[in-house]
Amino acid sequence: MENRDTNIKLEELHPLYQMLAKLIGPEAAVKLGQEFAHQDIYFPSPYALTSSRRQARDKIILEEYESGRFTIGELGKKYKMTVVGICSALKRAKACSDSSEVDPRDDASIERIKQLLGEMDEKGRREFLQYAMKKRNASRTQQHVTTGGK
After folding, report:
1. Which residues neighbour 54 within 8 Å (Cβ) at sequence distance 6 or greater?
2. What is d(CA 144, CA 132) in angstroms, rounded to the nearest whole number?
């Protein structure tokens, strides 16, 4: 669908298009809208544009976490990331290697999980628990498929 109207007035655009038009111009905003109409688009953080920038950010997150100055929830707010995103950054920076070996049947692992949950704010705990439930359900589904439902 082509836009033949080249005299687009900013105030006539939908508020989302107005925001985009201020950044990239009205014609480009309309073209972007036509290309991606009715789609959810996720733009990763500028840190994710290159692996070296992401690695640098992850290293800073690791240093701040290990210093004890910030909890995982606070880091999430600071970097505008979810708790899961912060944990992924910590894992990439080799900070959470112990959490990848967490066995929920092990008392030490249960204490580590409690500690991590205690460091999170309420929203962070909800996000973490939702993530954990999805992982558990996916694991059960995979196990059900692998074992033929046995």
Report:
1. 47, 48, 89, 92
2. 18
Tokens of 80: 């505008």
State the Cα angle at 49 between 27 and 51, rounded to 5°.
165
Question: What is the predicted pLDDT for the residue at 102?
Answer: 47
**HSE, side-chain direction, 13 A CA sphere, residue 5:** 8
Give the 3-state DSSP-derived string for the chain, with helices as H, strands as E and coil as C. Answer: CCCCCCCCCHHHCCHHHHHHHHHHCHHHHHHHHHHCCCCCCCCCCHHHHCHHHHHHHHHHHHHHHHHCCCCHHHHHHHHCCCHHHHHHHHHHCCCCCCHHHCCCCCHHHHHHHHHHHHHCCHHHHHHHHHHHHHHHHHHHHHHHHHHCCC
The tokens for 78 are 């600071």
61 near 89, Cβ under 8 Å? yes
For the chain, what is the mean pLDDT?
76
Residue-level pLDDT at 109? 60
Residue 105 CA to residue 58 CA, distance in Å, equals: 30
